[in-house]
Amino acid sequence: MKKLAIIGASGHGKVIADIAKKNGYTDIVFLDDNDDIRECGGYSVIGQSSEAGHLDADLIIGIGNADIRKRIQESVPKERLATLIHPSAVLAEDVVLGAGTVVMAGAVINSGARIGSGCIINTCSSVDHDCILGDYVHIAVGSHLCGTVVVGSQTWVGAGAIVSNNISLCPSCMIGTGAVIVKNIDIAGTYTGIPAKRIR
Ligand SMILES: CC(C)(COP(=O)(O)OP(=O)(O)OC[C@H]1O[C@@H](n2cnc3c(N)ncnc32)[C@H](O)[C@@H]1OP(=O)(O)O)[C@@H](O)C(=O)NCCC(=O)NCCS
Q1: CA distances from 185 to 94, 115, 140 (A)
Q2: Can you tell me the distance from the alpha carbon of 125 to that of 133, in angstroms, rounded to the nearest whole number?
Q3: Are both 65 and 111 inside the same structural domain?
Q4: Which residues contact 130 (CB under 8 A, 6 or more apart)?
Q5: Pocket of ligand 1, candidates 69, 191, 192, 197: which has the most ligand atoms within 8 Å of its Cβ, to mutate?
Q6: Using one digit for the tens of pLDDT, what is the confidence trace for 61-84?
Q7: Residue 65 belongs to domain with CATH number
Q8: The one catalytic residue among 12, 129, 138, 144
Q9: In angstroms, what is the span from residue 194 Cα to ligand 1's centroid?
Q10: Which H or E run contains 66?
Q11: Given this model, what pLDDT does residue 167 score?
Q12: Closest to 129 measured CA to CA, from 143, 99, 108, 104
């Protein structure tokens, strides 16, 4: 029996549970620091995130917020972290995925791409050839990185955003939904619009 504990009983966690099932996990439980949450997607919440290390299970963090995902992931045994890929995702053979990363339905990751640890490559997003993503990056639903894009750790590329080829995004940026990035971003902050500008 393959057991997985998902830390974070959220909507995102529920989607991860479905991917885990498709990856052969037959025993799926949740951990969440909110004691009031008892179940998620039909699976039981059996304790808090601090209990993860004591469970005889693989682990994955089901939390969208990069700071929290990082904090929790760094507190659990690295060798127990799962890497999950939805069967409908298309990955080139040489793609490298870090531990704790989840690739969701319909995502495409092309040749030469290297994805860090604890990343989310969300539904129907794409990461094209030779992109390099740091740890805890989130490529949100339907967003696209053209070829040879570099994304710094903990940066969130919002839903439907597009990052043009050869662009670098520094760590800890928030790219708004639908933004188009055509110039390198060197200062952490929130960027929106076409072409994207820093709003804070
Ligand atoms: C960019 C973002 C982070 C800003 O959130 P926020 O800091 O709470 O900012 P606010 O909602 O207060 O908006 C601030 C201003 O930016 C504008 N704005 C917000 N998001 C925008 C976007 N995506 N494109 C253009 N303008 C945007 C707002 O209209 C507002 O303008 P105003 O001051 O003229 O009224 C957020 O809107 C966003 O796009 N988050 C990404 C969500 C996402 O990708 N989810 C996917 C989950 S898979």
Answers
A1: 28, 19, 18
A2: 14
A3: no
A4: 111, 112, 113, 147, 148
A5: 192
A6: 999 999 999 999 999 999 999 999
A7: 3.40.50.20
A8: 129
A9: 13
A10: helix 66-73
A11: 98
A12: 108
Range of the domain at 112: 83-192
Query: Where is the domain boundary, 44, 62, 80?
Result: 80
Mark which of 80, 111, 146 sits at the end of a domain. Answer: 80
pLDDT for 1 = 85
Stretches in the chain below the pLDDT threshold 50: none
Q: Specify the ligand 1 atom closest to the Cα of 158.
A: 44
Check whether residue 65 and residue 149 sit in a common domain. no
SS3 (DSSP) at 149: coil
End-to-end, the C-alpha distance of the chain in Å comes to 48
Q: Is 12 a catalytic residue?
A: no
Ligand 1 mean position, distance from CA 22 (Å): 34
Using DSSP's 3-state secondary structure scheme, residue 54 falls into: helix
Q: What per-residue confidence (pLDDT) applies to 163?
A: 98
The secondary element (H helix, E strand) that includes residue 71 is: helix 66-73
Q: Could you tell me the distance, in angstroms and rounded to a whole number, from the CA of residue 199 to the centre of ligand 1? A: 9
Same domain as 96, residue 188: yes
* Number of domains the chain is built from: 2
